[in-house]
């Protein structure tokens, strides 16, 4: 899908304070993104899709109001505290203003300090439900992990002149939110890389693959650094946790997100700003509105000097003929609405009706048409809890997600609901050899922050964290 974006004046960009950031776009795997090159890895390291070239425009939702709800299994396992944790994640997205009203350089959003660690939760192996919900929602909104995809291998070619040597052809798949040019800096951190071939080893669950392994280096790295990495690349601490964007996804145990970083917001602004036009088809279920008073979430688009006063365009209000295909702008703001979901009966009650104005350019005519969609069976985003399988090494798979890319034409890059985000119910889980005395805890779901309040844990029969910690000590 071709994106048509209003150009920024060169002088205006040059006048902005310099900062370095990046986002990556998410979409279906392209033909070259194979497992042999580090893509499409199976669980537990599975990605939802692959990084997209900015020329393709990425994938996005076409309406600004997105509903979410919880299955019976989620409610039973996590309770009201767990649902409240997800609500807090959604409130962070809802607090964002219209993307068109943000400053050009996004100076109001920090590039650091949004990821913190709670030492008690870290020691107890607790994953934060809210933070992982934020990461999964960013993924569902169309953003990929900008650190993981800073550098990717496009193809490899053995060097015919030197036996045993391989040439790795590497691409940069990150884009600056202001200039939209490629960059290797994420939230101000310069990421270098080392190409390597990962063979199948004992305990390594994946087939052999090549990868460009990123590691943080705030200054442009000396080429000699590429020669001095440890043999075991995974022994390196490659990332600057304090500057990780939330779109870098699944934070380790004990880490939690305070909010969105500048790069997270920059990626969302690129996809959803009203200046970003794309040829799109209305999703299934969107119909002409029969009642213009409804559950809000519509958007109004000011077309600016590209359209206003241009005699080549005609502005009209649509009749009863619904225009499904045409040039559409970004919705300019995302709002999440929680609905009551009965997953056993498969109904949303009461049904949620979203009436909004769809502004579409068709046949050189700007049309304002009142449309609606009714959410009555399944929320757009479903939070679920199930006993997920374990990975090849025996470690439980913590999360699974479905995709909303759909089997649609490549030119129609629209994310379509519903999507399902599932937490495992295997937590808490322990590991030992033969005796209880050798037991070690692995992980447990919980909620925590930087306050003096003790973390809340889930899935341990309603017990407190003190009781959870005591149960492990008794076994030792």
Key structural traits:
five-stranded mixed beta sheet; 476 residues; 29 strands; alpha+beta; seven-stranded mixed beta sheet; single chain
How would you explain this protein's 3D organization?
α2 (72-94) crosses α4 (129-140). This protein has one domain (19-387, 399-474). Strands 1, 14, 15, 16, 17, 21 and 22 form a 7-stranded mixed sheet that branches. Strands 18-4-23-25-24 form a 5-stranded mixed sheet, covered by helices on one side. Strands 3-2-7 form a 3-stranded antiparallel sheet. The protein is globular. Helices cover 14% and strands 28% of the residues. It has 476 residues and is of the alpha+beta class.
How would you classify the helix and strand content by structural class? alpha+beta
* Number of beta strands: 29
Report strand %. Answer: 25-35%
Percent range of helical residues? 10-25%
Oligomer: single chain
What is the general shape? globular
End-to-end Cα distance, whole Å, is: 59 Å
What is the alpha-carbon Rg in Å? Answer: 24 Å
Number of helices: 6
Overall tally of structural domains = 1
Largest sheet: 7 strands, mixed
User: What value does the average pLDDT take?
Assistant: 81
Low-pLDDT stretches: 5-18, 219-238, 293-311
In short:
The chain is α+β, with helices and mostly antiparallel strands and 476 residues long. It is 14% helix and 28% strand.
Write the layout of secondary structure elements.
Blueprint: E1 3-5, H1 10-15, E2 24-27, E3 50-52, E4 65-70, H2 72-94, E5 115-117, H3 119-123, E6 126-128, H4 129-140, E7 143-144, E8 151-158, E9 166-172, E10 185-186, E11 189-198, E12 209-216, E13 255-257, H5 262-272, E14 276-281, E15 287-288, E16 314-317, E17 325-329, E18 335-338, E19 341-342, E20 347-348, E21 352-362, E22 365-375, E23 381-386, E24 399-401, E25 419-424, E26 430-431, E27 440-441, E28 444-447, E29 456-457, H6 465-474
Parallel strand pairs: 4-18, 4-23, 6-28, 16-22, 23-25
Antiparallel strand pairs: 1-14, 2-3, 2-7, 5-13, 8-9, 10-11, 11-12, 14-17, 15-22, 17-21, 19-20, 21-22, 24-25, 26-27, 28-29
Helix pairs in contact: 2-4
């Amino acid at each position: 899908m071709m994106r048509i974006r209003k150009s920024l004046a060169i002088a205006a960009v040059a006048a902005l304070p310099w900062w370095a950031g990046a986002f990556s776009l998410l979409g279906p795997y392209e033909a070259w993104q194979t497992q042999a090159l580090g893509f499409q890895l199976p669980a537990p390291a599975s990605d939802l899709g692959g990084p997209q070239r900015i020329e393709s425009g990425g994938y996005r939702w076409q309406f600004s109001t997105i509903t979410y709800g919880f299955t019976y299994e989620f409610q039973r396992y996590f309770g009201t505290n767990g649902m409240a944790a997800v609500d807090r994640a959604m409130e962070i997205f809802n607090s964002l203003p219209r993307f068109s009203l943000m400053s050009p350089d996004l100076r109001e959003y920090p590039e650091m300090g949004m990821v913190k660690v709670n030492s008690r939760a870290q020691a107890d192996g607790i994953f934060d439900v809210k933070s992982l919900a934020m990461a999964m929602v960013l993924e569902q909104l169309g953003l990929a992990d900008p650190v993981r995809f800073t550098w990717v291998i496009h193809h490899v070619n053995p060097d015919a002149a030197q036996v045993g040597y391989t040439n790795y052809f590497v691409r940069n798949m990150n884009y600056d939110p202001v200039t939209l040019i490629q960059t290797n800096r994420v939230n101000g951190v310069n990421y270098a890389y080392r190409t390597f071939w990962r063979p199948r080893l004992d305990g390594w669950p994946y087939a052999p693959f090549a990868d460009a392994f990123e590691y943080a280096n705030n200054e442009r790295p000396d080429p000699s650094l590429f020669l001095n990495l440890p043999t075991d690349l995974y022994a390196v601490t490659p990332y600057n946790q304090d500057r990780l964007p939330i779109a870098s996804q699944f934070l380790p145990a004990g880490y939690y997100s305070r909010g969105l970083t500048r790069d997270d917001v920059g990626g969302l602004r690129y996809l959803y700003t009203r200046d970003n036009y794309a040829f799109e088809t209305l999703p299934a279920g969107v119909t002409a509105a029969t009642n213009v008073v409804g559950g809000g979430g519509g958007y109004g688009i000011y077309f600016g000097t590209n359209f206003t006063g241009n005699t080549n365009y005609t502005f009209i209000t649509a009749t009863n003929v619904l225009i499904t295909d045409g040039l559409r702008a970004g919705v300019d703001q995302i709002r999440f609405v929680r609905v009551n979901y009965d997953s056993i009966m498969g109904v949303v009650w009461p049904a949620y009706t979203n009436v909004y104005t769809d502004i579409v350019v068709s046949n050189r005519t700007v049309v304002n048409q009142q449309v609606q969609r009714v959410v009555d069976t399944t929320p757009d985003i479903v939070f679920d809890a199930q006993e997920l399988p374990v990975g090849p090494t025996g470690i439980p798979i913590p999360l699974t997600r479905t995709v909303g890319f759909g089997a649609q034409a490549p030119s129609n890059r629209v994310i379509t609901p519903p999507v399902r985000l599932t937490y495992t119910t295997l937590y808490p889980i322990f590991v030992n050899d033969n005796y209880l005395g050798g037991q070690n805890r692995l992980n447990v779901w919980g909620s925590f922050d930087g306050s003096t309040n003790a973390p809340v844990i889930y899935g341990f029969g309603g017990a407190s964290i003190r009781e959870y910690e005591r149960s492990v000590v008794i076994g030792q």
